[in-house]
């Protein structure tokens, strides 16, 4: 007289990865603008829940601008909207703004930050009281708020490439994936790596 009850199995809920794309649009990255724009459009169109930001001396959210149907319209809007394009570089401030805003929302376990930059930073800052630089402080906060930090360097892959940029040197311990984007082969490896 025993009743046989069915075991109900719960399937593991698949969580979507949230991509936050942070693109350096400072003067040193001007050569790579065509690549940057294609990557921003491609990621935003494929991953609807992604967010796209550009920075040089300040940070600007361009997610809604990129969502427009026409690439030409979006380029025109970006030109009018992002006044700091081809300016100096302040990576520390860009990370600070992300840490206090968008990265506080959502789960760290599902968030991947893709940072596209050559690593050159025009700002100089004195060490904090604990000996860290402000950039190191922001990178430590960032690592608690994202699952992965992917750094794409368009110069990486060139035969003469060496890590010279101080900001990139400081960031290396916090980077999960360091990927090239120098030529067609590098782009293929980039897509595979992502």
Give the strand tally.
Answer: 6
- Strands of the biggest beta sheet: in what spatial order? 3-2-1-4-5-6
Q: What oligomeric state best describes the polypeptide chains here?
A: single chain
- The first-to-last residue Cα distance is 57 Å
Low-confidence region ranges: none
Helix content: 25-40%
Which helices and strands, and how do they pair?
Blueprint: E1 18-24, H1 33-46, E2 51-55, E3 59-61, H2 63-66, H3 71-81, H4 91-100, E4 111-116, H5 134-145, E5 148-153, H6 166-171, E6 177-180, H7 184-193
Helix pairs in contact: 4-5
Describe it for me?
With 194 residues, this protein is α/β, with parallel strands linked by helices. The chain is built from 7 helices and 6 strands; from the N terminus they run E-H-E-E-H-H-H-E-H-E-H-E-H. The chain has helices at 33-46, 63-66, 71-81, 91-100, 134-145, 166-171, 184-193; strands at residues 18-24, 51-55, 59-61, 111-116, 148-153, 177-180. Strand 4, helix 5 (134-145) and strand 5 (148-153) form a beta-alpha-beta unit.
Write a concise synopsis of the structure shown:
With 194 residues, the protein is of the alpha/beta class. It has helices spanning 33-46, 63-66, 71-81, 91-100, 134-145, 166-171, 184-193, and strands at residues 18-24, 51-55, 59-61, 111-116, 148-153, 177-180.
Q: What are the salient characteristics of this protein?
A:
6-stranded mixed β-sheet, 16% strand, single chain, alpha/beta, 194 residues, 7 helices
